[in-house]
Amino acid sequence: MTDLIATRPKLTFRFDRWAPALLLAIALLAYIAIALYTGQTQYLTVDNLISVLGRSIALGITAVGQTFAILVASIDLSVASLISAVSVLTSVIMNGNPAMVIPAIVAALALGLVVGLVNGLIITRLEVNPLIATLGMSLIIQGCLSAFVSNFAGSVPPEFQVFAYGGFGSLSYSLIFLALLAVAAWFVLRHTRFGSDIYAVGGNKDAARVAGIKTARVTIGAHILCSLCAAMAGLYLASRLRSGAPWIGSDGVYDLESIAVVVIGGTILAGGRGGIWGTMAGVIIFSLIDSIFNLAGVDAFAKQVLRGIIIVAAVAFYAVRSKRLVA
Amino acid sequence: MTEQTLPHADRRKRQLPQINPVYFVLAALIVAIVVMNPAFAEPTGYMNFLKRAAPLAILAAGQLYVIVSGGFDLSVGSVITLVVVGSSILSNNDPNSTWWVIATMFAIGAGVGLINGLVVCYLKVPSLIATLGMMITLNGVAFMWSGGSPRGYLTDQFRFFGRFNIPDLPLIRILPVALIVLIVLGFALYWLMHRTNLGRMIHAIGDNPRAANLAGVPVNRVRILAFMVSSLSAVAAGILLGGFAGVSTDVGTGYELQAITAAVLGGAQLLGGRGSVPAAIAGALTLNAIFTLLNFLGLPQPIRQVVQGLILIAAVAVAMQRRKHTGR
């Protein structure tokens, strides 16, 4: 809602709008400084920066969807197991046969649609806390999946591997896809009625209902978009691994990492404030942090410790100024 | 809180629907287990069940403090891992070290809870993110400390709490030390939550932090204490788990979600204001009883996951419908 007001030209500096950009600048400066300090200037090319981004495409796609869920004051913990399920489903349906690429994609998106719809219905009709609803959904999906597969299943034909490996020069198709997805999400959030309804419902559900918005439909819609994005991330990972793995989602911790990225990008967990570009900044910050650790040669375990601290510090960076009491 | 203000006659009338359904579910599950496996009715059967369930029950009771105050504590699983891995390194196979190692672990736990609380209260980071960060950090610390592959084992003195049964008792024959720990800690946590001002203030903050603040509750101090109770209970659970689990860097994985599940099964309201320690403990026993039952039924691990997911959603959905009907 605040964004609507902020579209009027105002000269006051709004810290919380610029915090993600500031964090991004800090991360970028740190990356350059470390590269210069350790004398690894060969990593300071545009090509290399693009390849840094290329490592977090699955996280980026998931985070775009998670932004919708969090903006509407919900949350989705089922994305990780949905990613695993979709990657297995597509590679089993394709099974190396190029003719099955389209049916597999349709099946994957249909699965995402159903999961999102069920999540949304449980949250709005049964009034189950979204955290619990999607956590339960995650357990159900993962359980069903591991009842059938315990190892790599199926195979992805080369025609579909292009999605992850092909590209114009160093600019991969998947990166372009992520950029287009982000632009589409931005358009939906800023220029459609559904988008402003999302901000309204996330900001104050009761007020939105009184104002005549069908809040349940908006929440369900946001969850469907979130699950569809997770399904697309699953498609990308199937293409990248050339086969479906039932552990790919939980190994990547896409549920918690996508939430962390969205929150670092300035979208607040209480809903109603934030946006897609903050999330994109968060994704870039995350991949830069990894690259910085690699350049500096930080040991794998120390990397994990620092990562935990950085997540909290990044959120604290702008949260510390808020006057409200947080949960 | 309303029970205390109701007049006496009215209170008796409303007693029946006020019994938490988790107790009925637990009783039904236990009956089902006994029907399927009569050996469960023997003291060794149910005592071993209680021994296995004790860590989760303590963890759930501690987690309840944070949930009632309106937050989440996702770091408890990693605290358990840190306790098990850290104790095996610190004690260095020396039986005499048990007491100071345990004291050190409780000090670490208090520190972790304090940091969680400070980050949430003063840096204003939502508890979900703050404790998630703590979870990632502590798992990293456990890895660093052990060099990735924990060696050594815990001494028998350390394992005493989780593993030892007091033998040759009349009537019940054996009494696991873990059960004594559960009863003592459970009662202490019950008393602190339902019979002291601290407990009332935790409820008040979870219900409406702004109102609690205006009413003079030292909000930050109380919330920090709630996080410390949760972390300390995780240390206790870790010491018990060390009694029968192996030393590895993933002992505690998944316990944070099980603890939240148990508290929710016990009728705790996420985002605060409502919850009961005995019901959370009953929730933990229920969760364990479900797993035991599924084991007896010979169902594989994946089915257990599906059932846990369904139960979790159903429990909260039923609680919400009940709340709508009774208006409480």
Features:
heterodimer, A: 327 residues, mainly alpha, two-stranded antiparallel ribbon, 16 helices, 2 strands, 73% helix, globular, B: 328 residues, ABC transporter involved in vitamin B12 uptake, BtuC, two-stranded antiparallel sheet, 74% helix, 3% strand
What does the overall shape of chain A look like? globular
Oligomer: heterodimer
Low-confidence stretches of chain A: none
Rg of chain A over CA atoms, rounded to whole Å, is 20 Å
Helix content of chain B: over 70%
Most extensive chain interface and residues per partner? A-B, 49 and 55 residues
Q: What is the residue-averaged pLDDT of chain B? A: 86
Sheet/helix structural class of chain B = mainly alpha
User: How large is the radius of gyration of chain B?
Assistant: 20 Å
CATH hierarchy class name of chain B? Mainly Alpha
Beta-strand share of residues of chain B:
under 5%
Largest pleated sheet of chain A? 2 strands, antiparallel
How many beta-strand runs of chain B?
A: 2
Category by helix and strand content of chain A: mainly alpha
Mean pLDDT of chain A: 87
- Widest β-sheet, arrangement of strands of chain A: 1-2
Helix-strand pattern of chain A: HHHHHHHHEEHHHHHHHH
